[in-house]
C-alpha cells in the first residue's frame, strides 16, 4: 500500500516543497492531490493550501524522515458529483499521458495565453470518456468570470476541440481555484434554504438561470424530500429551476 501524507502551505508550491523537505524525496516520487485551494476566507484572511501526497508504490520514505503531522480532513457536502466520484481518478497534478491529452492541454495553454490571462492546465482526474483539467495561474478570477460564465465558455470551446479529436461522447471539464467545488456547496445550501422557504410559504420559488451541471446539483440535492419537487423552465443553455410544494403545485 502506498504511503499517504498531508501538508499545508501559503501556496500550492509551498505545501509541495514542505512535502519534499519532510520526506527527503524528489518531487517525482509522489503524486499530489489538492484538498484546499488558496482563497480568501472570513474578513479576507487568506486560507492555507492543503495537499495530500501519494508516494509511488516503489518508493520508501527514508528512515530519518520525520512523520508528517496529520491534517484534519473536511468532509465533502453530499451531492451528485461527490456520490459519483470516479474510482479510477488520477491524483491531482498528473502529466498528460497520450497525444490527445497533450493536445487538449496545449490548446488551453495557448488559448489562455492569447487571452492575456496565461494559465497552466493540470490534469485532475481521468474517467472513461472524461478528462478533468485544473487551470493554475494568477488570473483565476478573470477565467471564472461572473457566476462562472467565462469558465463555462472556455469549457464549451475545449469540448469543441475534444469532439473533433475523440468524438462527441468524450467530455472535458475545466476548473480553477476549486470553483466548481465551492459553487456546488453554495448551490446545495441555496437549494436547501429555498426548499425550507417553499415548505413554510407553500409558494414556489424560481432560482436564477443556471447551466445544466448546476441545475443537476439542485435537482439531486432535493430529490429525497417528499413534499418538494423541482423542474427546469426556459430555453437555451441557461434555464431556471423552480422549487415547489408537491401538494400545492404540479
UniProtKB/TrEMBL annotation:
Gene Ontology MF terms: RNA binding
One GO biological process term is: peptidoglycan biosynthetic process
Q: Which domain of life is it from?
A: Bacteria
Fetch the InterPro entries from UniProt: Jag_KH, Jag_N_dom_sf, KH_dom-like_a/b, KhpB, KhpB_N, R3H_dom, R3H_dom_sf, R3H_KhpB
Keywords, in A-Z order: Cell shape, Cell wall biogenesis/degradation, Chaperone, Cytoplasm, RNA-binding
Asked if the keyword Disulfide bond belongs to this entry, the reply reads no
GO CC annotations on file = cytoplasm
The R3H domain extends over: 181-247
SMART domains from the UniProt entry = Jag_N, R3H
Q: Where is this region: Jag_N domain?
A: 6-56
Which Gene3D superfamilies does the record match to this protein? 3.30.300.20, probable RNA-binding protein from clostridium symbiosum atcc 14940, R3H-like domain
- What does this protein do, in the record's words? A probable RNA chaperone. Forms a complex with KhpA which binds to cellular RNA and controls its expression. Plays a role in peptidoglycan (PG) homeostasis and cell length regulation.
Quote the subunit structure annotation: Forms a complex with KhpA.
User: Which NCBIfam families does its entry note?
Assistant: Jag_EloR
Q: What is known of its domains?
A: Has an N-terminal Jag-N domain and 2 RNA-binding domains (KH and R3H).
Q: Which family does it belong to?
A: Belongs to the KhpB RNA-binding protein family.
What is the name of this protein?
RNA-binding protein KhpB
Species name: Spirochaeta africana (strain ATCC 700263 / DSM 8902 / Z-7692)
